[in-house]
Amino acid sequence: MNLKDKQKYLEDQEAQYHSYISDSMAAMQKKGGNKKRFIMPFTPQWHHVRTLEKQGRKPKFGSYKYSAQRLYEKGILLAAKEFSPKQFDKLFIIISCDEVGIFKVEVRFMDKLVKGNSSSNTSIHQNSQQQQQLGGSSSHAGVHKDGIDELRMEDLLEDQFSGKQSLNLEIVKLNLNLLLHLINRKGDWKDDSRPTTP
């Protein structure tokens, strides 16, 4: 076996690996997708989903609205730029998923989208000033565009494997392990666009 054959073999293995990962993530998100989850009426989550439905912006795999205060108390939220913990009761973090393995995180203060100081479509890998402000050796997997951070599950898992403890986004700093646990615990990033069966 010469080097070209070995290179072709390894490239085929890599392609199979990426295909397997994509299929696995798609299967995880579709599992149980026919079940419609009950949302307690008149809660912030109920209002959030209802607003998205009225605007025709409901993500295919769901959207969840969390109080920054609650995430801070659970240790998921570590810091928020320009906000003190006293303001966290008016600050909300919304995590939504419209594509398999891609999660969008937006921060809202009193129902208005909070945008960072960097220009749109800036890779978070390039935003070193933000890293200094929010601190430390942390992960910065994702892309920031128009006030919304886009995270890829494979990047988050890779950073977790590398031993990173936190995730710096444009506005907030999150505990990486607890964020992944929150995403996986929800367990219903399923296709909500399919009709439910009686």
TrEMBL record:
Q: Which GO terms describe its molecular function?
A: actin filament binding; calmodulin binding; GTPase activator activity
* Limits of the RasGAP protein C-terminal domain: 2-82
Q: Which InterPro entries does the UniProt record give?
A: RasGAP_C
- Under the cellular component aspect of Gene Ontology, which terms does the record hold? mitotic actomyosin contractile ring
Q: Which GO terms describe its biological process?
A: mitotic actomyosin contractile ring assembly actin filament organization
Return the Low complexity bias intervals: 118-139
The cross-references to SUPFAM superfamilies, in alphabetical order and at most eight, read:
RGC domain-like
Which stretches of sequence are listed as region Disordered? 118-143
Q: What's the superkingdom here? A: Eukaryota
This chain belongs to which protein, by name?
Answer: RasGAP protein C-terminal domain-containing protein
Q: State the organism named in the record.
A: Puccinia graminis f. sp. tritici
